[in-house]
Amino acid sequence: MRTTRKIGRSQNPEEAVALILLCVSGMRTETAQYSVTEEAERGSFVANIAKDLGLTGEDLLVRQARLVPEGEKQYFQLNHHTGDLVVREQMDREELCGQSEPCLVRFEVLLENPLQSFRAEVRLTDINDHAPVFLNKEIALKISESTMPGTRFLLESAQDPDVGNNIYTRQRSDGRRYAELVLDRALDREQQAEIAFSITAVDGGTPPRSGTALIRVLVLDINDNIPVFTRSLYKVSVMENSSQDTIVMVVSASDLDSGTNGEISYSIVQNSEENFETFKINAETGQIRLKKPLDYEETKTYEIDIQASDGGGLSAHCKVEVQVKDVNDNAPEVIITSLTSTLSEAAPPNTVVALFNVRDRDSGDNGRTTCELIGEQPFRITLLAADAYALVTSEALDREQVAEYNVTVRARDEGTPALSASKTLFLRLLDVNDNAPTFTQAIYTMMMSENEPAGRSLGRLSATDPDAGENARVRYALVPPPPGTLAVASLVSVDAESGTVRSLRPLDYEKVRSFEVTVRAADGGSPPLSAQAVLRVVVRDENDNAPVLLHPPPDSSAAGELVPRWAPSGYLVAKVVAVDADAGQNAWLSYELAKATEPGLFRVGLHSGEVRTARAVTERDAAPAEAHRAGAGPRAAIALCHCTLAVALVDGFSDAFHQLDQDAESGQQPKVAEEEIITTYLIASLGCISSLFLLSILVLTANTLCKARVRAELSPPSPSCYADGDFASDGVGGTGTLSSPFRYEMCLTSGSGRSEFQFLRPVLPRQHSNAEAGLDKDEEPLYDSQPACDGEAHAESTATPPL
């Protein structure tokens, strides 16, 4: 439902007239429109908002009614007691809205509890509070005395900021207002040179307002004299670096006429587009200025035609000649006429690399140039002709040191200040095969394990060549050994491209421990260059050999040993001797009892192989004979060998003989030889006891000396040592006994006092035939046979082991 309500007020300007339009739709926001005249005094009544909204003053207070202006300034105020809307600030319609119509001031009335918003608009009605105004209080017109009557002159219009009926003027068809001055009769300058009168503009307001301006008419004289220049030709010199707006020349002309006929204006006759773009002239003073900087290299002389015109249209002409002076404002130019971008590094000195010219657009000293190279490079500049130069090499080139050159040529003129320009030439050197390959090492040492399968990579050789392309492509090859030496080419190979070294067949450390071969690296140049290095291959030992028993012989039956029943603890029963063909830790042997019929009665030395009683023999050990199996093997316990010892506990040698004879021969020996065998055993036992006595004295002496030496040198004890010796291959007799004497190499340490002495390893043979080593006739056996006993005492002992 829409309700429209009008409220009328007095037409007096001091009272407000308000029109209210309320739009109510349920709980929606109400809209109201009011009007008030501009310039209404503060406190002027506009409308009663409380009544229009159906509220009381108390409601406005309770609901905290307030006005929210649309702009930043608040022009109205709400009385919360009466609900009246009054003017807070005077409003000027022309200031707020200008010529826009209608002029509206919008605001909102906000109520709380509940929150409601009512939009209101107050229209400002215009009053005639502005009079028409001329922009110029005095209007000057120049009319020639020869002007015909009836001539119309357009006048400046008055401006009135009011709107509506407050403005009344004549308008053109396009809506623009205008006023005209019409000449009623002919003018005579000699009778009256100046005419003055007023013009009034009146608006259509109530009451009407008006504005006045003074019109001054100057009667112009008839132009009967032409302007005259002081000179017909003006000459001037200007530096080419003169800035824009620089004064070039001032021309002057005069006219005998008065008024406008005597007023002269200057202009440039556009006889040249270049002149018009370069120069400009002040129409009143005759000053000629630059529009843009001059360039001597483009134009050296300018001729300008100047025209002087008076107010009557008469004119005269003169000429201005401008000479441009050169300044050093152009840097030299380096122009390349021929360039070789690639050059062989073998090029001799004085080889031409480039030809170039130098040009400077300036004149005189400003145009004279010199050339030079920047930096120290193997090049120089040669003068060929005027401003023509050649860039040549000055010394030998080396691509490996410098592969590319950026040659900078700088040209400098002789002006003040001097200007210069640079040109950079890129030159790349072509490679020549003048460098041989170089190995990264003189000697390469590579390791390989024995029995390693063929084709295994041992390492990689590396050689570099500072040349480029094919000249730097390195290929590897083995150098054939001299005749009569080991054919190492059958042992290893070298990949020609990568330098990878591979084995060709498995090697045996016991036959070949190391070998050397010469390797050649050759480049792909023509002719090729090469270098050599030594490749040393060291074979690393593997535990591939089982220990070999020397005593007792492995092919004999159980060896018999005699032990008296009164033997104390530690009694030496027998000594097991074994050797290992491997080296290093793989040749370190240890001994242990693998099986014994009486485990608690005997023990074997871990390193010495001596079988001793672990305790004293008692009556309870009544067994007539005991069999013991001793084993020997390296520390890694990978390869083992075994032997069997038969020990007889006897009261006398007769019993021992009978017992051993029965156990060993199993009744196969004839009884006729029993006495002869017993006698032999007795003699052997006596010899063994004597040898042990002498050996004990030697061991004690060596032990004392070794301890004294260790204390003196304060060196740490060595866990083991090795030495070389000679073992005869036929040292073991066919009867299973060890022939006397048997030679051992032993080392005594600070800790050998408990174990007396140790038999570490026998001395291997120093030479073997090629057939025994498994080599060809032309191959040499390569062995390393060096003792390794540091800080220890050495002694040789000759002993006959007990049987």
TrEMBL record:
<protein>
    <recommendedName>
        <fullName>Cadherin domain-containing protein</fullName>
    </recommendedName>
</protein>
<feature type="domain" description="Cadherin">
    <location>
        <begin position="335"/>
        <end position="439"/>
    </location>
</feature>
<dbReference type="GO" id="GO:0005509">
    <property type="term" value="F:calcium ion binding"/>
</dbReference>
<feature type="domain" description="Cadherin">
    <location>
        <begin position="440"/>
        <end position="549"/>
    </location>
</feature>
<dbReference type="GO" id="GO:0005886">
    <property type="term" value="C:plasma membrane"/>
</dbReference>
<dbReference type="InterPro" id="IPR050174">
    <property type="entry name" value="Protocadherin/Cadherin-CA"/>
</dbReference>
<keyword id="KW-0325">Glycoprotein</keyword>
<dbReference type="GO" id="GO:0007156">
    <property type="term" value="P:homophilic cell adhesion via plasma membrane adhesion molecules"/>
</dbReference>
<dbReference type="InterPro" id="IPR020894">
    <property type="entry name" value="Cadherin_CS"/>
</dbReference>
<dbReference type="InterPro" id="IPR032455">
    <property type="entry name" value="Cadherin_C"/>
</dbReference>
<keyword id="KW-0472">Membrane</keyword>
<dbReference type="Pfam" id="PF16492">
    <property type="entry name" value="Cadherin_C_2"/>
</dbReference>
<feature type="domain" description="Cadherin">
    <location>
        <begin position="230"/>
        <end position="334"/>
    </location>
</feature>
<keyword id="KW-0812">Transmembrane</keyword>
<keyword id="KW-0677">Repeat</keyword>
<dbReference type="InterPro" id="IPR013164">
    <property type="entry name" value="Cadherin_N"/>
</dbReference>
<feature type="transmembrane region" description="Helical">
    <location>
        <begin position="678"/>
        <end position="701"/>
    </location>
</feature>
<dbReference type="Pfam" id="PF08266">
    <property type="entry name" value="Cadherin_2"/>
</dbReference>
<dbReference type="InterPro" id="IPR015919">
    <property type="entry name" value="Cadherin-like_sf"/>
</dbReference>
<feature type="domain" description="Cadherin">
    <location>
        <begin position="122"/>
        <end position="229"/>
    </location>
</feature>
<dbReference type="Pfam" id="PF00028">
    <property type="entry name" value="Cadherin"/>
</dbReference>
<keyword id="KW-0130">Cell adhesion</keyword>
<keyword id="KW-1133">Transmembrane helix</keyword>
<keyword id="KW-0106">Calcium</keyword>
<comment type="function">
    <text>Potential calcium-dependent cell-adhesion protein. May be involved in the establishment and maintenance of specific neuronal connections in the brain.</text>
</comment>
<dbReference type="InterPro" id="IPR002126">
    <property type="entry name" value="Cadherin-like_dom"/>
</dbReference>
<keyword id="KW-1003">Cell membrane</keyword>
<feature type="region of interest" description="Disordered">
    <location>
        <begin position="769"/>
        <end position="803"/>
    </location>
</feature>
<keyword id="KW-0732">Signal</keyword>
